[in-house]
Please model this.
Amino acid sequence: MRARDAARALALTARRLWEAGLIAGADGNLSVRLGPDRILVTPRGMLKSELTAADMVEVALDGRHRRGFRRASSELDLHLRAYRRRPSCGAVVHAHPPTATGFAVAGIPLDADVLAETIILLGPVPIVPYAQTGTRALGDLVEPYIPDHHGVLLAQHGAVTWGPDLAMARIRMESLEHAARILLAARHLGRVRRLTRRQVAALELLRERNRDG
Ligand SMILES: [Zn+2]
Model:
């Protein structure tokens, strides 16, 4: 993706995530891969609803600032881990989706054997133990999950999803929150009926066939 198009897509996606209530204020951060060794990421500490393409920051995969007037997101390390660890990763979305984060606060994982669409799009979404935002410790805890998952919940914090492009990383974040809302409704109703192992296996096969990055 060309840098200018990527910058516009990041600004638009940040606004959409805010409109959908998945981030508030300066929460969250997004990035896209521009090449094998460089990414474009949202800036530190700015309202996500008001970002423009000119606010985005180009960073090398080793974390060095390459271009842009702003400082890169304070959660840059989390993004860099995904690109380094998973060469096919094209985009990363970090947000604070309220219901999914509620599960992370309660320490209840999103059940992996309940919703067909979630199994195909996301697969299991583990809860990564707590570490302070913006620290290498958080990256160290998330990194082992990157090769075999499409997203994780962060204890007492939020969620991260990734994918081959920005659209898929965003779809996964929206789907994750939607799945959490449905599960919460089912838990309120008092019963969670699960797919059989055979049904789950058939859906997992579909996910493997569509394996993207
Ligand atoms: Zn965060």
Q: What stands out?
A: The pocket of zinc ion is lined by residues 27, 75, 94, 96, 133, 157-158 (CB under 6 Å). The chain is about 40% helix and 15% strand.
